[in-house]
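Two entries, shown back to back:
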Amino acid sequence: MIVSVEDSLVELKNFLKSKNIEVHNISEKILSDAYIYSTKNNNILDLYDFVEGKNEGSLIINADNKSLNEILYFLNHRSYSSLF
């Protein structure tokens, strides 16, 4: 699984790497299975400059008010409840 994470979410990136997940900064524009962002530092519309979904689909996860384990659950189960 390839995951791109907003550059400012350093703790999340380190956590996912410790779980043997391939993680990149979202600014690298790597085609990913999931994209994780926060609206605390950015406008959601800016996300569209960095996201390119895979043909089979890509998850987009808002990390705001979510624990590290909740985000890991979303990734492992390829499910997420809502964007807002």
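entry 2 starts here
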Amino acid sequence: MDIERLKSKILDTQEDGKIPCKKALEIAEEENVPPLKVGEILNELKIKIVSCQLGCFK
């Protein structure tokens, strides 16, 4: 797993410090990493999840 590439992809995808849940899950699948790892990086980068598919984050 290339953490820097993953961070770069997340930073390129986010908008105004936010990323849709669906897109975060897509990144996890594309990069073959667990969604939890993407979540950890989102926390580290202080990027919020929006449009949560479970309705947890708005």
